[in-house]
TrEMBL record:
Organism: uncultured Acidimicrobiales bacterium
GO process annotations (BP): ribosome biogenesis
GO molecular function list: GTP binding; GTPase activity; metal ion binding; rRNA binding
Keyword tags: Cytoplasm, GTP-binding, Hydrolase, Metal-binding, Nucleotide-binding, Ribosome biogenesis, RNA-binding, rRNA-binding, Zinc
Protein name stated in the entry: Probable GTPase related to EngC
UniProt keyword Transmembrane helix present: no
Chain spans, region Disordered: 340-370
C-alpha cells in the first residue's frame, strides 16, 4: 500500500485531477491528499495553497504577518487570525496586491503550551505535525523533563519521537538509552550523534516521504546541529553550551519550516526553558500508559494511588516493577493537568460573563433609542 504514496505518486494524482499544486514544490513542504481535500472544501478559483514557514513578530496594518511558501514563490502575507508555523493556508490578494490569508485549513495536530505571558492563554508553537521530536542530550539527561515533553507531545495529536542526542559525549550511550527505555515505557527512542552520524539516517527515513517534525527541547540540546545533518548543509546557526551550568545559548530565535532534500519537513524552534501545561488529560494517559493500565486494576475506581487498600499502582512501586521516580513525575504532572483544567474553566466563565454583560448593555442601549 505504501507504494501508492510519496511525492511522485502525489504529483501524478494532482496532474490527473487538476488539483493544486501544479508543480512538485509544495509536495516538498508536506502537501498530500489530506491537505488537498481540506483545501478543495474552501478554495475558490483565485486562491492559491501555501504553507506558513515563518511568523513575523511585527504586525502589518493591525493584522498578523507571516511568510508563506506558495507553489511558485515565498511571499509575505497578512491574516486576521494569527497563524502558526506549519499551518496550511488559502491565499488570495486584496485590491492593492497584498497577499492575504483568507482561510487557515483545519489543523490535525498542534504543539501548544500555556502562554508564558498570559496564564489564561495558549501559545501554539507549530501546527500540522506528524512527529514531535523531543531532544534530550545524553551528557545532561533529565528524564523528568522528557516525561513532561512526552505529555505535551501526545496532547498535540502527533507522535512523539525521543532523540537522545550527543551520544559521542558519553561512555556507553546504548546502556543509558536502555535505562531510559525502561522508564519511558512505549516511547519511540533513537540514539543520535551529529558528530559521527549515529541515528541521522534513521531519523531521515522516519520523515520520508513528506512527514513533518517539530524540533522540541532545551537550548544546547543539538536541535540545529541535527537539522543541519539532515539538511546536508549548514543552514542553521549552532552554538556550544556554557561551561559553568551546561545551559545552551539560543542560536535559533524564531520558529521556521525547512524541507529536507530526501523528503520530509522540519520545524526548528528556539529552546524552551518553561513548559507550562495548557491541556494534558489525553497526553498524561498516553505518556504514562503503564501507570494508567495498573490503575485499572485498583480495587477502587477513584483510587488516588496514595494509601488506599488494593491499589495496584502503589503495589507495583513497593514490588519494584514501577520506578518510584516515574510515579513521582506522574503525580506532579497530574496535579498540573488538574490545575490547568481549573484555569480553563475560570477563563470560560469569565468569557461567558463578558459576553452576557456586552449583550445586556447592547440591549439596554437599543431600548433607550426606541
Amino acid at each position: 500500500a505504501r507504494g501508492n504514496w510519496g511525492p511522485a505518486a502525489d504529483a501524478q494524482r494532482y496532474r490527473v485531477t487538476g488539483m493544486h499544486p501544479t508543480s512538485t514544490t509544495l509536495l516538498q513542504y508536506g502537501w498530500g491528499e489530506r491537505v488537498a481535500a481540506l483545501y478543495a472544501e474552501v478554495a475558490e478559483a483565485h486562491h492559491q495553497p501555501g504553507r506558513v514557514v515563518r511568523v513575523e513578530r511585527a504586525s502589518r496594518l493591525g493584522r498578523a504577518a507571516c511568510v508563506v511558501r506558495l507553489d511558485s514563490d515565498e511571499v509575505t502575507a497578512v491574516a486576521d487570525v494569527r497563524p502558526a508555523v506549519g499551518d496550511w493556508a488559502v491565499v488570495g490578494t486584496d485590491d492593492e496586491g497584498t497577499y492575504v490569508i483568507d482561510h487557515l485549513l483545519p489543523r490535525w495536530s498542534k504543539l501548544a503550551r500555556q502562554d508564558p505571558g498570559n496564564e489564561n492563554g495558549v501559545q501554539v508553537l507549530a501546527a500540522n505535525l506528524d512527529y514531535v521530536a523531543i531532544f534530550a542530550p545524553l551528557d545532561r539527561l533529565k528524564v523528568a523533563r522528557i516525561e513532561r515533553e512526552l505529555l505535551i507531545a501526545w496532547e498535540s495529536g502527533a507522535s512523539p519521537l525521543v532523540l537522545l542526542t550527543k551520544a559521542d559525549l558519553v561512555d556507553d550511550a546504548e546502556a543509558v538509552a536502555e535505562d531510559v527505555r525502561a522508564r519511558l515505557v512505549g516511547a519511540e527512542i533513537v540514539v543520535t550523534s551529529s558528530a559521527d552520524g549515529t541515528g541521522v539516517r534513521q531519523v531521515s527515513e522516519l520523515l520520508q516521504p513528506n512527514r513533518t517534525a517539530v524540533l522540541f527541547g532545551p537550548s544546547g540540546a543539538g536541535k540545529s546541529t541535527l537539522a543541519n545533518a539532515l539538511l546536508g548543509r549548514e543552514a542553521l546557526a549552532t552554538g556550544a553550551v556554557r561551561e559553568n551550568d551546561q545551559r545552551g545559548r539560543h542560536t535559533t530565535t524564531s520558529r521556521h519550516l525547512l524541507p529536507l532534500p530526501g523528503g520530509g519537513v522540519l520545524i526548528d524552534t528556539p529552546g524552551l526553558r518553561a513548559l507550562p501545561i495548557w491541556e494534558g488529560e489525553h497526553g498524561l494517559a498516553a505518556a504514562f500508559a503503564d501507570i494508567e493500565e495498573l490503575a485499572g486494576s485498583c480495587r477502587f475506581r477513584d483510587c488516588s494511588h496514595e494509601r488506599e487498600p488494593g491499589c495496584a499502582v502503589t503495589a507495583a512501586v513497593a514490588g519494584g516493577t514501577l520506578d518510584p521516580e516515574r510515579m513521582s513525575s506522574y503525580r506532579k504532572l497530574q496535579l498540573e493537568v488538574e490545575q490547568a483544567e481549573r484555569n480553563r474553566d475560570v477563563q470560560a466563565r469569565q468569557a461567558e460573563a463578558s459576553r452576557v454583560k456586552a449583550l445586556t448593555k447592547a440591549t439596554r442601549n437599543h431600548s433607550k433609542k426606541r
